[in-house]
Amino acid sequence: MRAAQRLRVLVVAPERHPLRQPHAGGLEAVVWNRVRWLRRRGHHVELCAAAGSDFLGSCPDLQLPSPRWRRVQETSDTENPSGHRERMSDAFARVRRRLTDPLDGVDVVDNHSLHGDPILWSRDAGIPVVTTLHTPPLPDMVNAARSLPPAAPHRFLAVSQYTARSWSDEGVDAFVFPNGVDSSEWRRGRGGEQWVWFGRIVPEKAPHLAIRAARLAGARLRIAGRIGDPRYFASEVEPLLGDGVEYVGPLRQPELCDLVGASSVALVTPVWSEPFGLVLAEALMTGTPVVAFDAGGASEVLAGLPGCTVVPARDVRALAEAAASLAARSASPVFRDRVRAAASARHSLAHRQREVERVLTVAAHSRAAEVGTRTPDEAAVGA
User: How far apart are CA 292 and CA 266, in angstroms?
Assistant: First the structure.
C-alpha cells in the first residue's frame, strides 16, 4: 500500500553506531525499521547517520562522525571522547545548511538524535521537526527544547508513558507513541529448555544478574548482544560464563529470533530507568514468556499481557523463581500462541508506524502551530 501523500523526510539517527545488522541496540533497530517502512510507503526518505549505515546515500554532509576511542577499553555507550561534541556540532551545521537549500529541502525531519542541535532546526530554520524521546532526559536536549518559542514547528513523541512523565518533569511535553515490532520477522518459536537474555551488554542492563538467577534455578542460559562496556563485561559477566551459561555474541535479527524463539523464558534485567525495552516486545512476539525487573517503562510495556511477570528490580531470587514458573508453561503450543497473539495486538510495528506517519504528515503542514493549540488533525493524532 502506497502512502496517500508522498513526503520528503530526513531521518536523523543517533550517531554512536551505524544503522545495520546486527543492531547495536533497540534504538538503532527502531530507526532502521522506520527508514525501511517509510520508504516502502512511498515517501522520499534520506538518512543522516554514522558512516557504514544501511540506507545512507552518497552525500557526505549526511554522514555523522561516530565517537573516536583511543583504546577499546574506553568504549562507552553513555560517555563521549574529548572533542566529539564539537565534531557533532560541525556536522549538524552542515546538515542544517543543506536543509535550507531550496534544492535539498525536506517537508519534515524525523529526529532520533540524542543531541540538542536538530531540535533547534525548527527554531532557527523553520523546518518542521518531530523528535522522538528514546531515553531519560538528557541535559543537551532539555536545554534545546526549553529554548523553542511557542510558534516553532516542533513536536515531541515519547516511547512510553514513563518516559513522557520524566521529560514532562523537565518541562518537555510529548505525545506517547510506543515502539513496535515487525511480526513478520519476529516469528513464533517452538520453545526449548534453555533461558535467554539479549540486549546491550552494559551495566544498566545487568546481564550478570540474569546469570545469577539462572544459577539459582539450575537453568542453562544463553546471552546474546553487543558488548557496549568492555570493562563491565570483563569484570562482571565473563567470569560467570561456562557451566551452562554461554555468550553467543551479537546476532543478526533472523538468528536472534531463532535463539529467542527456541528458549523457554527471556530474562530482562534493567537496573536503570528503562524507557521502553524493545527486547520485551521482541521476546513475546516469538511466544517466549518474559520475566522483567520493574524498572522504568518495563511494567507499562508488559501490563495485562499473558506470559509476563514483573519482579522488584535487583531481586535475583524473585527473578529466578518467576522464570522457572513461566519456563514450565512455555512448552505448551497453546500458551505460546496466546503470548504471541497478545504481543502482536499491542506492539505491531505496522500499526505504530502508521500512527507516526500521520504525525509526520501533520507536522509537515503545521509550520506555525502554537504550543497548546492543535488542529483537528492533530487532535486525532493525539487521541
Answer: 8
Cell 529467542 identifies what position?
260
| Rounded Cα gap, residues 282 and 182, in angstroms | 9
Dig out the grid coordinates for 353 from the structure. Answer: 508506524
Give per-residue pLDDT as tens, 264-315.
Answer: 999 999 999 999 999 999 999 999 999 999 999 999 999 999 999 999 999 9
C-alpha 139 chain-centroid distance: 19
- The crossing angle, in degrees rounded to 10, of helices 349-364 and 26-40 is 70
d(CA 111, CA 123): 14
CA distance 334 to 345: 17
Distance (Å, whole) CA 212 – CA 136? 27
Strands 154-158 and 108-111 turn out to be unpaired
Cell of 188: 513464533
Q: Are strands 154-158 and 175-176 parallel, antiparallel or unpaired?
A: parallel
In this structure, are residues 256 and 229 in contact, taking their beta carbons and an 8 Å threshold?
no
Distances (CA, A) of 2 to 5, 32, 110: 9, 19, 19
Are 7 and 37 spatial neighbours (Cβ–Cβ below 8 Å)?
A: no
Beta strand 129-133 pairing with 154-158 = parallel
Q: Residue 274 in contact with residue 135, Cβ under 8 Å?
A: no
Higher pLDDT, 339 or 371: 339
- Is residue 251 within 8 A of residue 293, CB to CB? The reply is no
Neighbours of 320 (CB within 10 A): 24
d(CA 265, CA 193): 9
pTM, entire model: 0.89
* Helices and strands of the chain, counted as H and E runs: 14, 13
| Rounded Cα gap, residues 248 and 90, in angstroms | 38
pLDDT tens column, 312-368: 999 999 999 999 999 999 999 999 999 999 999 999 888 888 889 999 999 998 753
Residues 6+ apart with CB under 8 A from 318: 311, 312
Angle at 11 between CA 7 and CA 16, to 5 degrees: 175
Strand 290-294 and strand 154-158: pairing? unpaired
